[in-house]
Specification:
about 425 residues, alpha+beta, about 35% helix, elongated, binds zinc ion
Length: about 425
């Protein structure tokens, strides 16, 4: 192993930059985020890159190709975390990319294109009610009101950005000209159990799932738990229970379609009262927008049928709708070939979680390489990868970079 031990040591070291040690909490534009960014700037410069902090607080390192000023292949991920996070979500993708560039630099290798490593700051969206601020700035798709978003202490994102050393007025200038960008490749832990269950260290992502979310309200007739006979009830919670099972069935209806009820509440919520109202959420995801929409329409119809049969009123409000972001077939092929050259069966899988690559898909061809994580656990201190898998991730990324051939965005993925 050439890269694994050093990369794992660096990931351990990087986890020092936290609001609450020994836990890891590094929210966007905090002091600990700035400390991590400063450390990353040092490591990038040691790896032969020219490095700076952009206006959105993204750490950017550039390794020139065989001629200065060539279009760049972008690599990287995020260095912000959730509260009480693991060490690998996001950070692995940034530090693996730095390790690959450091090896090129050590050997004096210049490629026929430039490489830029990006350490984004706002992938998790924990501090402010916005997300992907760094990657959306690079893609030129940042929401105009993002700077006005406030954290729970009332601090505006724009003010926090200024304090951090960023430049709220300069956000628009961070957007890249597509002509200067060859693509974006993100290494990331899988955050799911698929690779582990297949005994594979790495996987090639096909798409980042699109998602539909709904808020459902079922209204029935509240009553005394002792006096209303079963046959005369219109119990919205019992109806909601049947609906939750319908959501589960819809999720299992086809491969890669997942459906979840993550929250349910009953009112008034007393042991001796038949509820008058039940509310719950639905989260539906798929790499294929068509099958997600078909499944959603079918599910909403099923819920209406259940409500009518049980004599309860049903209200369904859509709360979120995001299309899938498809990985570029040409980049997927080249990643798959690099994985195969490492002696690993190339396995393709969708990403159920969102990533910075989702934002970059609006700018350029994108692809993702997933690394197996223990038990599929993430957003948790128990998050773990092996040193062997970390080593393979850098080895495969480096091999991919050495043979990388630009792909056409135009011929790119369409659902
Ligand atoms: Zn992540």
């Amino acid at each position: 192993m050439i890269f694994g031990p050093a990369l794992m040591a660096r990931l351990d070291d990087f986890a020092r930059h936290s609001a609450d040690r020994p836990a890891l909490t590094r929210l966007y534009l905090t002091q600990e985020h700035r400390a991590a960014a400063d450390q990353l700037l040092i490591w990038m410069r040691e790896a032969g890159m020219a490095a700076h902090l952009d206006a959105a607080g993204t750490v950017v390192g550039r390794y020139e190709g065989d001629t200065p000023g060539l279009p760049a292949l972008l690599l990287g991920s995020h260095i912000d975390t959730v509260r009480n996070a693991g060490k690998y979500d996001g950070n692995l993708g940034v530090l693996a990319a730095v390790a690959a560039v450091a090896e090129l630099n050590r050997r004096g290798e210049r490629l026929p294109y430039a490489i830029e490593v990006l350490g984004f700051g706002d992938e998790e969206g924990v501090r402010f009610p916005v997300t992907l601020t760094g990657s959306r700035a690079v893609a030129g798709t940042i929401a105009p009101d993002a700077l006005a978003a406030r954290d729970r202490d009332g601090i505006a994102l724009g003010d926090a950005l200024k304090e951090f050393g960023g430049d709220p007025a300069g956000l628009a200038a961070v957007a890249r000209d597509p002509a200067t960008v060859l693509g974006f490749v993100e290494v990331h832990i899988e955050q799911g159990p698929v690779l582990e269950s297949r005994g594979l260290p790495l996987g090639i992502v096909t798409a980042i799932n699109g998602a539909s979310r709904y808020a459902v309200t079922v209204t029935g007739q509240a009553g005394h738990a002792g006096t209303v006979p079963m046959a005369l009830r219109h119990d919205p919670l019992a109806a909601a229970a049947e609906m939750v099972l319908a959501v589960e069935t819809a999720g299992g209806a086809e491969p890669d379609l997942v459906a979840t009820v993550g929250r349910i509440e009953a009112k008034p919520g007393a042991v001796n009262v038949i509820p008058g109202q039940a509310t719950f959420t639905i989260d539906l995801r798929s790499p294929r927008d068509g099958s997600r929409k078909t499944a959603a329409a079918g599910l909403l119809h099923t819920l209406a049928v259940i409500a009518a049969r049980r004599g309860v009123a049903l209200d369904i409000q859509p709360t979120h709708d995001a299309p899938a972001a498809h990985c570029h077939p040409g980049l997927m092929r080249q990643l798959g070939q690099a994985v195969a050259r490492a002696g690993i069966i190339p396995h393709h899988l969708p990403s159920g979680a969102g990533h910075d690559a989702m934002a970059l898909a609006a700018l350029c061809p994108m692809a993702m390489l997933f690394v197996r994580c223990k038990g599929g656990i993430s957003h948790n201190p128990a998050e773990a990868i092996t040193v062997e898998d970390a080593d393979l991730a850098v080895t495969v990324l480096l091999d991919f970079l050495r043979r990388f051939e630009p792909v056409s965005f135009a011929e790119g993925p369409r659902p």
